[in-house]
Amino acid sequence: MNTYLECIPCFFNQVLQAGERSELSSAQVKVMMDAVGDELKRFPLEASPPEMAPTIQKLYTELSGISDPYKSIKDMSNEKALAVYPELKAIVERSATPLLTAVELACAGNIIDYGAHQDVDVSGEILQILSQADAAIAHEERELFAFDAFCDDLSKAKRLMYVGDNCGEIVFDRVLIETIAAHYPTLHIDFVTRGTPILNDCLVEDAYTCGLHHAATIVSSGMVSPGLIMKNASPEFKALFDQADMIISKGQGNYEALSGIDAPIYFLLITKCKVIARDLGSSMRDLILKKQKL
Amino acid sequence: MNTYLECIPCFFNQVLQAGERSELSSAQVKVMMDAVGDELKRFPLEASPPEMAPTIQKLYTELSGISDPYKSIKDMSNEKALAVYPELKAIVERSATPLLTAVELACAGNIIDYGAHQDVDVSGEILQILSQADAAIAHEERELFAFDAFCDDLSKAKRLMYVGDNCGEIVFDRVLIETIAAHYPTLHIDFVTRGTPILNDCLVEDAYTCGLHHAATIVSSGMVSPGLIMKNASPEFKALFDQADMIISKGQGNYEALSGIDAPIYFLLITKCKVIARDLGSSMRDLILKKQKL
Questions:
Q1: Mean pLDDT for each 10-residue chunk of chain A (294 residues)?
Q2: Domains of chain A: which residue ranges?
Q3: Which fold has domain A71-291?
Q4: Of B9, B26, B45, the CB nearest to A30
């Protein structure tokens, strides 16, 4: 997805949020904003939005000396999500349509804001999102929730690449991956993390912490951006990506990065941003399982 | 009021809105955003937010050739507000506390978004805002709605300067000014407009269109910004400002510009922006009549 003009104020909001999470003074945050304003001139609308994030994080690290500002939020998210893992497994096991339920849960994991409240009721939020999801899917056009095609393609696939998004959420991805593995036991599954700390996105260590290695091969994309920017991929990662005969791209950042890429991708996300909703032709907070069509 | 960091994303949103109101391409709007990003480095947080608006409007005019992009919105706002002028007068005449009602109406005029819907029900919106206002005032601290002090100062004043804000809204200001004039017939009243087109702010021609000249002397501030930036005032305007023994500053833009100025000012507005609400120590959509205290 190209960067839309609406993404630009949002870049500055990202700087604000980074500043609010730290001990930086207003003057220091202004220095970051000035630098982003400067960077903007070199940043073409043809770039995808996640390509700006490393610039902001680099500036933040230079000013604050903190290389992983989301570390505590990431740890807390993993912990809270791991605490409901048994419950997630039980929900899938009880379901008459376990794969569909696991897909819905993976979306639910994408929308829970673990950092927002110290006492977030993850179980309660899951149930609420699942009930919304059922209603949403019933009204979705098949194009935006292509579950039948998804199952069909899974049944034919040999190598699945699952591109992860945020910490905490990846516990929900684990449940989906385990459910897929149970349905299609001969399928090889790679789970892809970011290469270096960026926002609250998952790293290899988070994948291990959250037990993804029990269900998939953990692979670092090597990326510094909160989305899989394939033009920046190493030859090794590019080869692995090309070998996959099915790719699940999780969350908004990966959608932004991969939506123009010619590959057998399913985009799995909940729309949390009106620009992405418009790009997809959906509403806000829609459950999306969209097959790449170029 | 200094510029807060939160104002900076908002500057870029102003560019977006300018772009949406025009035939400018995304590439042209990006050029404006790049220029604002560049300008940002020269824009200190000690400046007040309205000081950025002329930069944005100048860029817009250079790219579009349109010097007054809000002209049609301004005309429509004046027309719609003039249509309810008799009703506004009747509401004040029926009121047991006409001056208080006129103050509330002046605030109501500040919040109606004439441009949002072609078929905006101005009468309905007024009644709704008045009922909200009564509830709000009842719970306000006296500091944020200093109506008794306002009446007391009006009774002693000889020269009142009323600094106008937006088109449409100024019809509501006219009703307040006429009510003040009826209560204090010896008071001289100047009504101040902007000097050149900026956003939907009122100009001398709008003041005449809306009949303000029946109740006050119309004065152009000469300003190019959507707020009275006194450091940019001409010696003549500065002298007039200094002669006033009471000033009513209308709306958010004038509050941003004048809140640090040592003068006998009452700020009359509804808070529509969380930054301003925080600066005032109020909630959003609060009715404010605050006496300047430095």
A1: 92 87 86 89 90 88 87 92 94 95 91 62 78 63 87 97 96 98 97 95 98 96 94 96 97 95 96 92 90 88
A2: 7-64, 71-291
A3: Rossmann fold (3.40.50)
A4: B45
Closest CA in chain B for residue A26: B5
Query: With contacts defined as CB-CB under 8 Å, which chain A residues touch B37?
Result: 36-38, 40-41
Closest Cα in chain B to A30: B5
Burial class (CB in 10 A: 0-12, 13-18, 19+), A72: exposed
The beta-carbon neighbor of B26 closest among A5, A27, A37 is A5
